[in-house]
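A.,

Following up on our hallway conversation. Structure tokens first:
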């Protein structure tokens, strides 16, 4: 599966939950800046739970995540239930996604012209 990334504004951060003795998770919500904004809940697990502490509600962030799915059989109802989780593994401030310098990417005007002496020498 390819790397998935989502940009948006951090709108909620929840407390860390110790699910079992060996498993912890922490959920947070990001709202996209699309024509029809979406509110998306992600979760951080294990040693990544504290990664959200570097951000506050209202910050624009990039979330790198994986989609996880699992099946659970509900014996009482004799039915299968499917769960999908968006598991965040890296968070970045939106502005840190820029290149290392403050220079904008080159525009078409910055590209040097082609040497016309050889451009018409193609056999087709």
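Then the amino acids I'd put at each of the 124 positions:
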């Amino acid at each position: 599966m390819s790397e998935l990334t989502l940009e948006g504004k951090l709108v909620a951060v929840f407390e860390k939950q110790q699910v079992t003795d060996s498993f912890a998770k922490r959920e947070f919500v990001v709202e996209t800046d699309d024509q029809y904004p979406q509110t998306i809940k992600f979760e951080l697990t294990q040693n990544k739970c504290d990664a959200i502490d570097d951000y506050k509600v209202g910050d624009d962030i990039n979330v790198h995540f994986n989609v996880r799915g699992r099946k659970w059989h509900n014996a009482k109802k004799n039915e299968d239930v499917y769960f999908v989780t968006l598991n965040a593994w890296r968070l970045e401030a939106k502005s840190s996604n820029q290149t290392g310098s403050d220079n904008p990417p080159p525009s078409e005007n910055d590209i040097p012209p082609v040497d016309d002496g050889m451009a018409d020498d193609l056999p087709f």
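Residues 11 and 85 are 18 Å apart (CA to CA). Curious whether your intuition agrees with the design.

B.
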